[in-house]
Amino acid sequence: MNKRLRAQYASIEEQNKQKFLENKIEISQTWGKPIWGVTLQIDLAAQVSSTLCGYQAELAQLEPRHFYFPPRQCQHISLNQIVHWGGHYALGPEETWTGIAHRFLPAFEKLNLIFPTFDVSFSQLIGTTTGIIWVAFDQNDEMERLRNEVLRKLPIPKETTIRGIIIHTTVARFQGKLGYPENILRYLQGKTETRSMRVASIILRWELVFPSLKTDEIASIDLR
Question: What is the largest distance, in Å, between two alpha-carbon atoms of the chain?
Fold first, then answer.
């Protein structure tokens, strides 16, 4: 198992556990609100998404009306942000994208069938102060290498400083303070199912409603 990711997830869990138990969580202020960004995403395989939806249904029973849940069609892994909706761009996000699109799109299309496919395995639920995530492992940092190669080969704006360092999908964000955070934490720790999927394509999307509740596909490439 990937030691770097294992250490990352242990750190995230440790940093958030006590705050989570004390209900020091952040209520999502941007859920369902219009945003504007450009992002690279990996869609979840059907089996992974089905298990995720099952977790959401069980969480909804434990804490009715306290969670926001990304719908099945919105669930994904974020690869990299190109123009981050929350970033600070001198020209604004839309003009920044317009300024690079004529170079970015041909460069992105040239990456079709360049990178090898690989597997990731989701196996751990983690409660954080901003939401609940389901984290995944690859064997040999294939996702990290893919991210680095994409960053190197594409004309990403210098103002885009946020980048992915883990592999995860969002299970839930907070609509309100939890009634019994200790019960939720116990539930998360008790879920040990592993669901694997092959990363075989990358989709470039406009993100229009947070968090990817509304998107438009711009282009996509396949891995080989």
Answer: 51
- Give me the residue spans of the domains in the chain: 3-222
User: Beta-carbon neighbour count of residue 4 at 10 Å?
Assistant: 12
Report H helices in 63-171: 93-109, 142-153
pLDDT one-digit tens code per residue, 13-33: 999 999 999 999 999 999 999
Which portions of the chain are predicted below pLDDT 70? none
**Which of 104, 91, 209, 92 has the alpha carbon at shortest distance from 153?**
104
CB proximity list for 145: less than 8 A, separation 6 or greater: none
Residue 141 pLDDT: 97
Sequence-ordered alpha helix ranges (H) in 77-175 = 93-109, 142-153
Q: Please identify which residue in the block is written with the tokens 């138990």.
A: 21
**Closest listed residue to residue 113, CA positions, set 4, 3, 221, 39:** 221
Per-residue pLDDT at 1: 73
162 by DSSP, 3-state: which?
A: coil
Beta-bridged to residue 206, according to DSSP, are 38, 216
pLDDT of residue 101: 98
pTM above 0.90, yes or no: yes
In CATH terms, the superfamily for domain 3-222 is: Cyclic phosphodiesterase (3.90.1140.10)
From residue 8, how far is each of 14, 39, 75, 133, 185 by CA, in Å? 10, 23, 22, 13, 19
Q: Residue 123 carries which side chain, given as an amino acid letter? A: S
Please give the angle made by the CA atoms of 185, 187 and 189, to the nearest 5 degrees: 70
Residue 76 burial by CB count (10 A; 0-12/13-18/19+): exposed, middle or buried? buried
